[in-house]
Amino acid sequence: MADTDTSVPGPEAAGAETPAAQTDAAAASPDPTAELAREAADLKDRLLRSLAEMENLRRRTEKQIDDARVYGIANFARDMLAVGDNMRRALDAVTPELRETADTAVKALIEGVELTERELLKVLEKHGVKKLEPLGSKFDPNLHQAMYEVPEPSVPAGTVVQVVQAGYTIGERVLRPALVAVSKGGAKAAAPPANDNAGEQMSEDGNQKSDF
After folding, report:
1. Between 1.20.210.10, 3.40.630.10, 3.40.830.10, 2.30.22.10, what CATH number should domain 129-189 receive?
2. Beta bridge partners of 53
3. Are 157 and 183 in contact (CB under 8 A)?
4. Do the beta carbons of residue 132 and residue 168 sit within 8 Å?
5. pLDDT, tens digit, 9 for 90 and up, residues 35-92
6. pTM assigned to the model
7. Could you tell me the CA-to-CA distances from 175 to 5, 121, 134, 145 in Å, in that order?
8. 153: left (phi over 0), alpha (psi -120 to 50) or beta
């Protein structure tokens, strides 16, 4: 008769996991805390991006509103400049002799045109349109348009010596460049004065070096 094996099977035989297997299983399963942290970071990043986009949109919208408020009348103002040009031409056609010899009605008419021109410029300036005063200044291609050159040795070359048609700006933009005549053949711009202190300092340095 054969002996019966009554021994109790060990943990491995019973299918129980070893400590090493338990550690591997724990490492393989995702950490709920880390997963929540990643989701929170992702949501925070999306939120910050959305806030940045909304801020950029707000700034662009504000700029568009400001530009529309400042430059929305540009076309209308440009058309009104022609009215002012015509009034100026009418006033320039009146010579000083004609003013003196004109009767009371004509003088009143001239004064009325002058008053209307001043009022027009005042209203334009109220809405951001300003007249350029380039006479005697250096030619600026961003603000002026040269029509011709005039020999004028008394001023440096490139100086505006005559304004053919007034120019205007609106806000920070040029509404209409000034048509000007520019001098040529004049004296060159004065060179910056020499630095006397630098010369004295060099002399002192030279004296100090000679002492050594």
Report:
1. 2.30.22.10
2. none
3. yes
4. yes
5. 888 888 899 999 999 999 999 999 999 988 888 888 888 999 999 999 999 999 999 9
6. 0.61
7. 110, 14, 15, 13
8. alpha
